[in-house]
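Re: that chain you flagged

S.,

Sorry for the slow reply, it's been a week of failed gels. I finally had a moment to sit down with the sequence you sent. For the record, here it is as I used it:
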Amino acid sequence: MKESHEQIENFPKAQVRSAIRSGIGQAEEQIKDNKISYKYSHRISNRKRKGLYALSSVAVAFGLLVASSYQSPALASTLSQIPLIGSVFADSNSVGLKQAQKHGLTSQVGETQTVNGISVTLDEILYDQSGIRISYIIKSDKKLEEYYCGSGMDYTINGKAPDGSSGSYQEKVQSATTRTAIQEINIIGDMPDSFELGLILHGKKGETWYFSNPIKKIKDIKKVLIHHSQNVDGIGLNVKDLSVSKTGTSISYKSSEKGEDFELSRAGDIEFRVVDQDGKEITGYSGGAEGEKVKDKLVFKSNKEFDPLNSHVTELTITPYLELPTDGGGVEYDENGDSKDIGFKGGSLKPVKFKSFKVKIPK
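Prediction finished late last night. Pasting the structure tokens below so you have them in one place:
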């Protein structure tokens, strides 16, 4: 793997890949047996891509095709329908991902695997204080259904499934045969600064694509300890810290509420509104939360992601609030691994009002 800001040399990739693939099968079983609640958000857009490949060989090939199109109107018509896909991160709506790509903080992979006429290219990976972001391109010889590969990749850390995680998946339609996707992985708990990330993607017709790559967390991350706590209408909230880097800002927190049913718990629906000392709001990105039962309580942990802060920001006002679901449901697994569909039960949940608090940003 080529990393844009630091080359990882002498890495035994072939041996590690073999071990990762062997371990992924076991990890998938762990994922099925995991009692953790996963929440994914799906967003889709038909906006055309504006990026260009950076590889000169591709640019030359495209130039030859354009030259040929002057002699072939039919070819010119076909070319006009071909999407030009450059960096998926650079073309995203996330300021942090654009910044990461611009400053060379992403790991550029570019590995492609093809199964049953469907090619999946692992484009780039970013590992920062907010978690792991992965971009990939899905291209098919035939018309491709939306969300043909579900809600993204399963993953392993050094060959093992994490104890709990949350995240989001965004997919864009580039053409009838091409999709681009960005997946965010938030792993709760201590994470090593570098590790081997194993990835597995499934298609609707049983296709499987495997990837494994060494990744490293970016440097120059500032962490501001907060430890702000409040309890409102039975919902306990503890905001642990805030982390800031060139690629974004994140708020780490833990919340809890008495109960037995995750679908009826409001503690997992907490979001934050963040404004600077001038009243300018910092754009946030809704993400999932990891939940587990602890005695008579449902306990959630998460890192909420926001855009990078400008250099003039000296103070933030943070206001927690509930983003209550309007629909939903899911799948529940029992101790035997048997699944059961869960219908939406959150329509009766009532909002609450949390107190705002301020955080000084060190220079």
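What I noticed first: The chain has a mean pLDDT of 78.

Talk soon,
D.
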